[in-house]
Amino acid sequence: MTTPDVQGLQQLERAVLDDGTSLATALRQCPMLAGYAQHAELRAWALKELEGYAPTDELPSYRKVPATLEVTVELNLPGQIIQGNSRRISPHQLPQHARDRGIGESAPIRQGVREIEAVVTQGDRAIRLSPPGSAEYALQMTQEQHRLGNEAADITSLH
C-alpha cells in the first residue's frame, strides 16, 4: 500500500515531467507534501511562490532578474508631436533618490507563479515593469531635461 506522501511525490514527479502541466499546478502539490513531511519552510516557500511575495519579504536571488532601464519620450516639436519613442538609460540618469532606493538594472519579481504564467501566455509582446515611484521619477527627469534646455522632451514613463 502506498502512503499519501509517496503518492504525492509520484504525482509531483509526473506533473514536473509533463510539458502540458503548468508550473502553478505542479507547485500546488508542494504545500501538501510539506505538510506530510512536517516541513514548514518548504510549505512557506511554496505558498509564496504560488501567491507572490509581500513587499517586506526577502526575495530569493532567482526572483531578481536582470532588466535594462528604459524611458518613453514624447517630443513636442514645432508642428508635430512624436510619441512612444523608447530608449535605454543608465541607472546614473535616474534621480538620486531613485538610485538610493536601489532602482537599477534588476527587476524584483514578486508576483505569484499563476500570475506570471498568465502574463507570459498573453503572447510575444515585451513585458514592461515599472518600479515603484516611476511616475514621480519620470516627472523629475522631464524637469531635468527642461532645466538643461531640452524643452521639447517629456519623459512619459520609466520601465
Question: What are the main properties of this structure?
Answer:
2 domains, three-stranded antiparallel beta sheet, alpha+beta, elongated, 159 residues, two-stranded antiparallel sheet
Structure characterization notes:
The protein is α+β, with helices and mostly antiparallel strands and 159 residues long. The protein has two domains: 4-51, no CATH class; 62-158, no CATH class. It has seven helices and five strands. The strands form two sheets. It has a three-stranded antiparallel β-sheet. The chain has a two-stranded antiparallel sheet with strand order 1-4. α1 runs antiparallel to α3 (29-37) and α3 (29-37) runs antiparallel to α4 (40-51).
What would you say about this model in short?
The chain is α+β, with helices and mostly antiparallel strands and 159 residues long. The protein has helices at residues 4-17, 23-27, 29-37, 40-51, 96-100, 113-120, 134-147, and strands at 64-66, 69-77, 80-89, 106-108, 153-158. The protein has a 3-stranded antiparallel beta sheet with strand order 3-2-5. A two-stranded antiparallel ribbon has the order 1-4.
